[in-house]
Amino acid sequence: MSYPQSGYNSRMSLVSEPHHARPDAYGFEETKQATGSKWHPRNWGRKTWIGVLAAVAVVIIVVVVGAVEGTKANRYPAYKKLNYTLKDTYEGTSFFDDFDYFSGYDPAAGFVHYVDRAGSQWLNLTYASDTSAVLKVDATNADSSTGRRSVRISSKKTYNEGLFVFDILHSPYGCGTWPALWLSDPSNWPMNGEIDIVEANNAASSGNQMTLHTTNHCKMNVKRKQSGKTLENNCWNGTNSNAGCGVQGSASTYGQDLNKNGGGVYATELRSDGIRIWFFPRSSIPSDIDTSANNSTSSTVPDPSSWGEPLADFPTTDCNIGSHFRNQSIIANIDLCGQLAGLEQFYSTESHCPGTCTSFVANNYTAFQDAYWEFRSFRVYQAQG
Ligand SMILES: *[C@@H]1O[C@H](CO)[C@@H](O)[C@H](O)[C@H]1NC(C)=O
Ligand SMILES: *[C@@H]1O[C@H](CO)[C@@H](O)[C@H](O)[C@H]1NC(C)=O
Ligand SMILES: *[C@@H]1O[C@H](CO)[C@@H](O)[C@H](O)[C@H]1NC(C)=O
Ligand SMILES: *[C@@H]1O[C@H](CO)[C@@H](O)[C@H](O)[C@H]1NC(C)=O
Ligand SMILES: *[C@@H]1O[C@H](CO)[C@@H](O)[C@H](O)[C@H]1NC(C)=O
Ligand SMILES: *[C@@H]1O[C@H](CO)[C@@H](O)[C@H](O)[C@H]1NC(C)=O
Ligand SMILES: *[C@@H]1O[C@H](CO)[C@@H](O)[C@H](O)[C@H]1NC(C)=O
């Protein structure tokens, strides 16, 4: 209390310098001041002092809080250049060897039967050549009254960090479909996080949606550098009915628009600074991304620091990325109806699909010709050291 008081007084005494320069008249002057000026601090009553000090305190608080908030709003990770090296490749005829096939009950309540590896080969739902790997929905069996057969694969290897380069030749779309290419640890969800890199539903004409799902304390209402449109800022599964914190890309980032241009590359960087997702249409893939098929000895090294602004940016500022995302497998699937594609809002209103989702999926087997993923390769790079 004494510091601001004396500080205030010393400044005031400069102003009243002439009075102090005349010590002989000091007593007189003081009396005169006491009756003559309510502006002199010596004449302030207790209430005035309290008022003045309160005003000073408010000013200090406003300045400090403003500075802190300003600094917080400007906080942004360094995202320093990392020296990546190729760690794992998923490509060529062995593409599916490094994945497990999920064949249990669908956790997302889809109208789907996920088929194991033998079944997928028998039905030809997954197959790979030197140049690509295909993963599709059963489009030959008319009778699917309890759900249509489809595939969900999950990489045996798991990752805490890395640069994942997904070369996509064709993305699935059509009424009833809910395809995704994502990273997660489904048996420890949401504790170990989920990163939806490519996700859409039904006609999928409004573009790709990239979303994080986490436990509490992961928010994105911070400074970001991205070209996509923010949908929600809270990634916690306990808010917004587990909508997650999504970012929407333009129509060309998915489905028909993406496919007619020969697909493109989605590159996802997962590191403690944050998660960034870049999309490159086939015609503008940076030269440091090797798109040659069947080349696990490729020595081309991608450098995200040279790529410019990503489509989606999830910085670590108000979300500890390193602790929210662990043991991530690469997962690709095509769900049908279920908690997303089956909702009237998406199936009917947005995509103008006929009847109900389940009756369409059960009966309209010829409508799944475009419901397939075709990948040229997945490559995972990790930083040295
Ligand atoms: C990356 O490699 C360059 C050249 O080899 C080196 O100068 C730099 O220190 C390395 N950076 C890191 C983060 O290892
Ligand atoms: C699976 O389907 C593809 C594409 O139609 C075809 O090229 C391939 O021969 C089929 N494989 C089997 C085992 O039927
Ligand atoms: C969110 O995750 C918690 C576990 O942390 C789980 O109990 C809850 O059911 C989840 N909520 C939703 C809507 O997924
Ligand atoms: C793919 O790579 C394998 C092993 O390097 C090679 O035997 C095969 O000829 C290649 N295929 C094509 C189409 O390049
Ligand atoms: C594979 O990559 C290496 C190094 O990047 C390159 O020299 C070679 O020509 C590539 N091979 C094929 C078949 O593309
Ligand atoms: C990640 O997986 C490893 C190996 O399965 C396990 O030991 C570890 O506890 C897991 N970490 C987390 C955070 O779940
Ligand atoms: C099957 O698809 C066609 C064309 O999209 C549609 O007119 C028809 O209503 C669908 N049938 C069912 C049973 O959903």
Automatic annotation (TrEMBL):
<feature type="domain" description="GH16">
    <location>
        <begin position="69"/>
        <end position="342"/>
    </location>
</feature>
<dbReference type="InterPro" id="IPR000757">
    <property type="entry name" value="Beta-glucanase-like"/>
</dbReference>
<dbReference type="Pfam" id="PF26113">
    <property type="entry name" value="GH16_XgeA"/>
</dbReference>
<dbReference type="GO" id="GO:0009251">
    <property type="term" value="P:glucan catabolic process"/>
</dbReference>
<keyword id="KW-0378">Hydrolase</keyword>
<dbReference type="GO" id="GO:0052861">
    <property type="term" value="F:endo-1,3(4)-beta-glucanase activity"/>
</dbReference>
<keyword id="KW-0326">Glycosidase</keyword>
<keyword id="KW-0472">Membrane</keyword>
<dbReference type="InterPro" id="IPR013320">
    <property type="entry name" value="ConA-like_dom_sf"/>
</dbReference>
<comment type="similarity">
    <text>Belongs to the glycosyl hydrolase 16 family.</text>
</comment>
<protein>
    <recommendedName>
        <fullName>endo-1,3(4)-beta-glucanase</fullName>
        <ecNumber>3.2.1.6</ecNumber>
    </recommendedName>
</protein>
<feature type="transmembrane region" description="Helical">
    <location>
        <begin position="48"/>
        <end position="68"/>
    </location>
</feature>
<keyword id="KW-1133">Transmembrane helix</keyword>
<dbReference type="InterPro" id="IPR050546">
    <property type="entry name" value="Glycosyl_Hydrlase_16"/>
</dbReference>
<keyword id="KW-0812">Transmembrane</keyword>
